[in-house]
Amino acid sequence: MRHGGEILVDQLLAQGVERVFSVPGESFLAALDGLYESGITNHVCRQEGGAAMMAEAQGKLTGKPGIAFVTRGPGATNASAGVHVARQDSTPMILFVGQIARAHRDREAFQEVDYRAMFGGIAKWVTEVDQIERIPEYISRAFHVATSGRPGPVVIALPEDMLSGKADVPDIGAMGENLRDVAPSSIATIRQEISGAQRPLVILGGSQWSQDSADHIAKFAEASNLPVAVDFRRQDYIDNRHPNYVGDLNVGINPALKQNLMDADLLIVLGARLGDIATSGYTSVDPANVKPRIIHVHPDPDSLGQVYRPDISLVADPRNVIAALAEAPSIDGDWAAWRSKARADYEAWLTPQETPGDVKMEEVIAHLSRTLPDDAILTNGAGNYAAFLHRYFAYKKHGTQLAPTSGSMGYGFPAAISAAISNPAKTVVCLAGDGCFQMTCNEFSTAMQYGAKVITIVANNGRYGTIRMHQEMHYPARVSGTNLHNPDFVALAKAYGGHGECVTRTEDFPAALERAIASDTAAIIELRLDSEALAPSATLSQIRERAQS
User: Fold this and answer.
1) Structure confidence by residue, pLDDT tens digits, 373-420
2) How does pLDDT run across 44-66, given as a tens digit for each residue?
């Protein structure tokens, strides 16, 4: 006989789970007891949003579901931010939520929430386990749902009386092998379609990727001289130094790349959904008037044709399609000039555009790109500071970019902690704005508790920069709700027992970075930015003047 918490944890062990992230609650005490001496490390976080984001980052890095435990009611509502990231980023994740006793349902009992209604629009599957004997079944299904097709989050509610009960039930083994072979005829059709194009463009995206896939796409693109772009915040899907890489379809996209996307007569979309960010609000590729032909490879059949009608669609794991294309002979086509121009456009975009002030973000990011190890992991949340990172940092290996395609503020810091816990030998750097960092900076305590040696670079301009930028575009000189009163970030780091420095001149940053790395602990480097340095391509005054003209 085992209680429900033991049965649940034994099922996690069967699936190969090594760590979970949690904020404890009385609603799942039996699960906490099951974790005791289980061999699974329980990383206790300071807020449920941080726990869910750490689990999501774990899922991104490993391709296996990241696991989080939170309590009922406000614990679940806090965690919903991480569930939304996992949904939009197609990340496998399982969130376990404590629930009120079954006999108290529908009385608006203490912290009662209908989780199916609450999470229904942002999770792949939401359920509640009513019978202790069915825990193994539910856990097995959760892992299959989270990782199948388009990966995503699963939410499982655990009534406390069910979880503390006892039963004698057999375990269910780990997931079986998933056969993923791609039919040779499908590869032949794709190759034939590419051979007939004049201006083909490969677009990589989705969440299913690996270093092998990065090597395969490089081999395929080089052999056939094809230009390769990546979807929003998927820049580590191919070495950015490769001559066939031509840039990312990002917020604030390189205008030349946007034009190349509009000029392409064939889009080979591998794993990406081709959403509004990649298409600049559906303007560069109009769903109502699609000009290029489209080959769309995606693991989820429901994603094919959802927005754009593909001329050729294939339900498949893009990693296997790319592996097959890499092993096939090169495709004959006169694309050398097209590829060369697109690459030149990307390299020109890397040329720093000087920003005002004594600390220049473009030079800070360029230094990081030149000096960090190729396998260093960089994380970020949302804000204009991230535009500098996306534009000027060259990603070299897969698994080195953790960034929310959902545009969630506060994500970068907990994601960096998760990455550092899982990869203690790697350098992990979080880029954060002053507003972004303060949404989850309480997790500095978590970093110190578990020895996560994260280096956080805080871009401090005293405002919510992205919102201020849009405010100046639409309501110039009418500043409302976007200014910030910030703490002493250096003192904050030291208060937790970490390392802190403030950089007021660009030339002082390299030494500050070296000291942060040498400190062998969690660190903050605060960058004091000029109030005019609002975006990579325009100052605050320039944005205001354009709006007023």
Assistant:
1) 999 999 999 999 999 999 999 999 999 999 999 999 999 999 999 999
2) 999 999 999 999 999 999 999 99
Can you tell me the distance from the alpha carbon of 41 to that of 62, in angstroms, rounded to the nearest whole number?
A: 16
For residue 400 the two structure tokens come to 């080195």
Is the domain spanning 184-349 CATH 3.20.20.105? The answer is: no
- Secondary structure class of 505 (helix, strand, coil): coil
What letter represents residue 423's amino acid?
N
Q: How many CA atoms lie within 13 A of 233 on its CB side?
A: 25
Report the relative pairing of strands 66-70 and 19-22 from DSSP bridges: parallel
Q: 15, 108, 43, 25: which is closest to 443 by C-alpha?
A: 43
Two tokens, residue 322:
């790319």
Tokens representing 161 are: 């009386």
Give the global pTM: 0.95
Q: Does residue 304 contact residue 296 with C-beta atoms inside 8 Å? A: yes
Rounded to whole angstroms, how far apart are CA atoms 27 and 204?
42
Neighbours of 255 (CB within 10 A): 12
Cα separation, 437 vs 442, whole angstroms = 9
**Who contacts 451 (Cβ-Cβ below 8 Å, separation ≥6)?**
421, 424
Q: Which of 384, 352, 347 is nearest to 365 (CA)?
A: 352
In contact, 527 and 459? CB cutoff 8 Å: yes
- Band of residue 176 on the pLDDT scale cut at 50, 70, 90: confident
Fold of 2-167: Rossmann fold (3.40.50)
CA atoms within 13 A on the CB side of 82: 39
DSSP symbol at 535: B
Tens digit of pLDDT for each residue in 444-484?
999 999 999 999 999 999 999 899 999 999 999 999 999 99
Residue span(s) of the chain under CATH 3.40.50.1220 come to 184-349
Q: Give per-residue pLDDT as tens, 206-231.
A: 998 999 999 999 999 999 999 999 99
Residues making up the chain, counted from first to last: 549
Q: Cα(335)–Cα(476) distance, rounded to whole angstroms? A: 45
DSSP one-letter code for 77: H
Just give the CATH number of 352-548.
Answer: 3.40.50.970
